[in-house]
Amino acid sequence: MEFDAVVLAGGGSTRFGGVDKALLVLDGVSLLDRVLRATEAAASTVVVGPVRSACREVGWTVEEPPAGGPVAGLAAGLAYGVAPVVVVVSCDLPWITADDVKRLVDGLGEHDGFGLRDTSGQEQQLATAYRRTALAAAIAQVGDPRDKSVRRTLATLDLAWTEPARAGDDVDTWADLDD
After folding, report:
1. What is the pLDDT of residues 56-102, one digit of tens each?
2. Which positions fall inside the MobA-like NTP transferase domain (predicted)?
3. I need a surface site. Which of 43, 77, 100, 179 has the fewest CB within 10 A?
4. Cα separation, 137 vs 158, whole angstroms
């Protein structure tokens, strides 16, 4: 099934002391490039955040106004592409692979979204394949997406989840980078 990718990479990385999390390097590859490699099969890819060096050709956009949070980033990213499925990933998922992305798209079935759980069992709304129409409707329903909660925004969607897996582990602190 054809899909587009929206990569969220606009956060302030406050728990990293303002270091750009997207450019952190793990095993010689930036976190952003690791996610871009995992989403390489996308018909189109847009990165929501400031333009940076990347391992492949992608579109770039920022939420309006900048620093409006992940729901505002989702809204900005949805303006790109036309595939019926959108894989949303944050740039801080260093262990996600192309096989994981394929599993998300293939597992969508009749649900509005199919996402990863991290190793603790936490559902990762920013590591999920969504039906474009369902995601767009949920975002439209909140009105101004600035500073809105991702969980509340997507609460009405029919979402299904994988078993807990390392692919869903995100990097929020320096300790999270330890293998």
Report:
1. 999 999 998 788 899 999 999 999 999 999 999 999 999 999 999 99
2. 5-155
3. 179
4. 13
Q: Which domains does the chain have, with CATH numbers?
A: 3-177 (3.90.550.10)
Cβ atoms of 159 and 107 closer than 8 Å: no
Give the Å distances, CA to CA, from 148 to 61, 78, 121.
Answer: 19, 16, 23
> Three-state SS for 32?
helix
- Helices and strands of the chain, counted as H and E runs: 5, 9
Q: Which residues of 5-24 are buried (b: 16+ CB within 10 A; e: fewer)?
A: bbbbbbbebeebeeebbbeb
Report pTM: 0.94
Residues near 140 by Cβ (< 8 Å), separated by ≥ 6? none
**Dist. CA 73–CA 58, nearest whole Å:** 16
Cβ neighbour number for residue 111 with a 10 Å cutoff: 18
DSSP state of 23: G
pLDDT digits (tens, 9 = 90+) for 150-171: 999 999 999 999 999 999 999 8
